[in-house]
Amino acid sequence: METIEKTGKIALDITPETKIAALLKAYPQLEPVLMQISPTFGKLQNPVLRKTVAKVASLRQAAVIGNVQLGGMINRLRAAAGLASELSISDSGGEAWKEGQVDRAKIVESFDARPMIETGGHPMNLVLEKAERLNPGEIFELVTPFLPAPLIEILQAKGYKVAYNQAGENEYRTFIQQ
User: Fold this and answer.
1) Banded model confidence at residue 8, pLDDT cuts 50, 70, 90
2) N-to-C CA span, the chain
3) Domain boundaries 99-177, corresponding CATH code
4) 136 burial class (0-12, 13-18, 19+ CB within 10 angstroms)?
């Protein structure tokens, strides 16, 4: 949500639903603060990720990706941006389906989206199409260079079971089951 300050300048309120790209556009000085909060956010310096993931990922999702407490991150960013009030934010959220529950024999397809993402593409539509084609019990595996938190939320909202794990420094495996 934008607010108009007394100077007539539009300021962005920093909430859990604020998109990362909007935050950094309104408050470019917060980029190093994000990097201090979690080294994972250093990936935002990659122009491709900045153009793709940062536009759709909220601060709530970034907290999951960065493995940090949402309330602490939001209030630290608000303070660094000069916003006066702290927000009371619950860090609780739904638990993801545990990766250990994945029956690897049920994986019917695996897609490594890293090359697509590195060239500026976004696999969201492709992943949603593949998920829709799954038969009950079947699993689709997605490989990405970061945790695709916005996509996970969309899939869970559509009723899919989603599990994920970090398989390497730039390798996350997300398992989607019908």
Assistant:
1) very low
2) 35
3) 3.40.50.150
4) exposed
Extents of the domains making up the chain: 2-81, 99-177
Mean pLDDT, the chain, rounded, equals 83
Q: Give the burial class of 5: count Cβ atoms within 10 A of its Cβ; 0-12 exposed, 13-18 middle, 19 or more buried.
A: exposed
* Cα 117 to Cα 20, 127, 158, distances in angstroms: 17, 13, 23
Residue 46 CB: number of other CB atoms within 10 A?
Answer: 16
Helices 149-157 and 59-66, axial angle in degrees (round to 10): 110
Task: Read off the pLDDT band of 27 (50, 70, 90).
Answer: very high
Q: How far apart are CA 123 and CA 146, in angstroms?
A: 13
pLDDT at 66 over 90: no
Helix/strand/coil for 68: coil
Top-level class of domain 2-81: mainly alpha
> Residue 12 gets which letter from DSSP?
E
Residue among 68, 67, 78 at smallest CA distance from 172: 67
Query: How far is Cα 19 from Cα 69, in angstroms, rounded to an integer?
Result: 17
